[in-house]
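To: structure subgroup
Subject: Chain for Friday's discussion

All,

I'm putting the inputs and outputs inline so they're searchable in the archive.
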Amino acid sequence: MNRLAYSQSPYLLQHASNPVDWWPWGEEAITEAKRRDVPILLSVGYASCHLRLPTNHWCHVMAHESFEDPALAALLNEHFVAVKVDREERPDVDAVYMEAVQAATGQGGWPMTVFLTPDTEPFYFGTYFPPEPRHGMPSFRQVLEGVRGAWADRRDEVSEVAGRIVADLAGRSLAESLSEGERRPPGPEDLATALMGLTREFDAVHGGFGGAPKFPPSMALEFLLRHHARTGSAGALEMVEATCAAMARGGIYDQLGGGFARYAVDREWVVPHFEKMLYDNALLCRIYAHLWRATGSDLARRIALETADFMVRELRTDQGGFASALDADSDDGTGRHTEGTYYVWTPEQLRTVLGEEDAAFAATYFGVTEEGTFEEGASVLQLPDAGGLVDAQRVASVRERLLAARAERPRPGRDDKVVASWNGLAIAALAETGAYFDRPDLVQAATDAADLLVRVHMDWQARLHRTSKDGTAGGNAGVLEDYADVAEGFLALASVTGEGVWVEFAGFFLDTVLVQFTAPDGSLYDTAADAERLIRRPQDPTDGATPSGWTAAAGALLSYAALTGSALHRDAAERALGIVTALGGRAPRFIGWGLAVAEAALDGPREIAVVGPADDPATRALHRAALLGTAPGAVVALGAPGADAAAEVPLLMARPLVDGAPAAYVCRHFTCERPTTDPEELAERLRN
């Protein structure tokens, strides 16, 4: 066992028995490299990383081929300090060196392999290296030998290269490149331009944007829903409906157990990369719930609820939080771990479970063929036939029996690491889905996760730990997305439950954003001012698999200002939105959450205060109408009239009952229309 045996990270623990003398990232490893005067090998990945490459290799293959090889490990141990990083624990380290890899090679991915000087300056890059030369790639041994030789014989050249790379990274500040005109929040014309950009990239045949591989465009979909709500754009809504229907009917969606895989390797959504991430499912659960809210779609309702149930059933931890991911691989019955084995079916397997007649029905319904849509004649279940009447009872029976049979297969591994930001996304999704569909169990699951974040992830200074495992916080400081997404989740939970304490906690986290993450020009950094100093302080406003910390913070700041009347937080949100003005027209797919926040800012956002006794059916009816309003980014405050509720949520201040009856106030910037006691009138106001 090596030093990784003491880690909480499932990814690092996977490498704890390697003959490589791994170090976790930290000052001790850097000091050791300086003492020995050797380069650092930095290897970055994550537990469920199984990237499907054309050569049919996965991220963990390099570990099996190279890091478990005693001879190769001996070479590595003698001439390098080997450092292993879980990118989900240390997104800052990953971001800084991934930027260097992409700048140098034009591409990136995991595992990421970077060679650093003892001062942590990068000078040679790659991703996967095979054990033997292959497909134009050198072997890992050749790479090690080459870097060792360069370090020994051409040190000045290595230092010069490293210095140039660091200088280049230092000059890549996007915020500093903004013109004065781009530092303003986006206006209606900017958002219309972004819509046109998305329309040009939209796949009108298969839904989604771009070609293969195709990722769920969650943030862009939220923008399109909000744009439709504000402007009535039919085209924006059509893109959401087409994309959500295609994903729900495709192989990227688990047709038996619910929940979405990470992405599809094809543009038709048929064959997924089978890992299931908490963040994807949280974001998509919320999107389908919002689509139902806008259209009443039965499909959207079903997918939102099934995805919520998947998260609670498969990802909830004993402590009440939500685990990071389910692996793509599982045992195929021969001791080998193979991607997709748990999920795919052959016609013969259907016959074994269902019998001939129901197997034939299931094969047609789920698109299972003798040729298969995956590997070795197996098929990924999908719903290829969008028309015709289907026997719902028969489908339910078939699905139940197949799900029971699948449960007997070896299950994919689970990454039990609890990540603060991803749990914030899950809290928002579960709270809203539970409220929309009268599922108090989902709201309770959201509350339990929020409790865990307060008890375990938050310290006495209201600073967040990014990760925990088994109820114990890890040693990794929260980054911007943690503070932003947890605040977003807590504000959504407060709107649903009427418990103002969640607004107060969100305020603590957003105050930290203002003090620790915000630059004088209003731009936002991904790491705190007092965080570990890296070769560059990361600052990325663009969406990846999740909303960027920058735009997520803008959204949470805007919502908090709407609930509290804080001009400080409103101003910070508007200054942060300048980046959306700069990028929205050029790359709308990659700043979708920022565009969604901009829609809310243009609309106000609407502030709805519902006052009345919690146990009064009239209060509950008004509250439900408020939650189901489609006004972009609207905030909802619920409480009994009086000073106590207003102390926690200032939006409730001076909002009396109307003739003794519960009432709702619709406001913008704390200026309110006349109150109403009629849920239908409230709903109508929130549609306009």
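Points worth raising on Friday:
The first helix runs from residue 10 to 14.
The CA atoms of residues 31 and 118 lie 8 Å apart.

D.
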